[in-house]
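Complex 139.
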Amino acid sequence: MSCAFCEIVAGHAPASIVHEDERTVTFLDLHPVATGHLLVAPRRHSADLSELDPEDGAQLFRVGMGAAAALRASTLPVDGVNFFLADGEAAGQTVLHVHLHVIPRRRGDGLGFRHGAELAARPRAELDAAAAELREAWT
Ligand SMILES: [Zn+2]
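Predicted structure with zinc ion bound:
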């Protein structure tokens, strides 16, 4: 196998596994941004969202909710939780096997999205034009 997460899911590579079910495996990120940073990966390989079985996608979110609840119930320092899924290398995806990050957050931990411009409210016409474009593209 060539995919690092397929190796983990198959039990052929070490991982600190927290949860498993028929569709997903949840394990600690080897390079966590915070203690308890979890990854939920489908057992079936999909490089990106366009390949992902929607039922696997639904289960990723379901298991992510359980992971968030476990983080909050644990003794780890958790004030909040972020879900993050990078779809494509331009979005920051480094392992090309779909996975949902479940990231415990602390107040003032300094983590967050960076952006290049002021996040000003956009004109309604611009938002409506983008909405129309996306409605057209929705299949
Ligand atoms: Zn894989």
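Residues 54-73 form the longest helix (20 residues).
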